[in-house]
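Example S7 (structure tokens).
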């Protein structure tokens, strides 16, 4: 069985301005962007809270935590799911020193990968008339024909043929 070749990230790590909306969202509220990325990747919306709480919980116990766990695991999961080149060391370094850029890159990647494909229909549409043609009933006995008021119907003189030019 042949393995599929690994691809690159759709956008570079420091390409934050390629999607200005994500750039601003991540700059002004990186934790909100992290929750959005987590939800978009079909994970718990609250998973990035681990990045905020883990240093506060483990440092008093004497266990220094420098690697944000949610950022690292989501980055590695996105890389593995979509077959993106990289290593665990690169994920750790990126998650530790470029957290904001990492979340922005993951958001751009998920937007790009989950974009709905454009469908173009080139066949012309067939026109089908489903309306039934009206049916007129003509009584062949002229004496029995009456108008809407009950008066007998009199056939007017036929119109003269049109003049030729």
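Recovered sequence:
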């Amino acid at each position: 069985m042949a393995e599929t070749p690994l691809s690159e990230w759709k956008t570079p790590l420091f390409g934050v301005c390629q999607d200005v909306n994500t750039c601003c969202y991540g700059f002004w509220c990186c934790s909100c962007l992290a929750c959005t990325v987590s939800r978009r990747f079909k994970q718990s919306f609250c998973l990035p809270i681990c990045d905020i709480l883990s240093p506060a919980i483990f440092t008093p116990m004497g266990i220094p935590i420098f690697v944000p766990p949610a950022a690292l695991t989501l980055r590695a999961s996105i890389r593995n799911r979509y077959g993106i080149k990289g290593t665990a060391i690169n994920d750790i370094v990126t998650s530790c020193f470029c957290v904001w850029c990492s979340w922005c890159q993951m958001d751009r990647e998920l937007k790009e990968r989950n974009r709905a494909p454009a469908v173009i229909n080139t066949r012309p549409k067939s026109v089908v008339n489903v309306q039934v043609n009206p049916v007129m009933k003509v009584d062949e006995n002229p004496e029995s024909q009456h108008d809407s008021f009950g008066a007998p119907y009199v056939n007017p003189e036929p119109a003269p043929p049109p003049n030729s030019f």
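Notes on this example. Residues 99-113 form the longest helix (15 residues).
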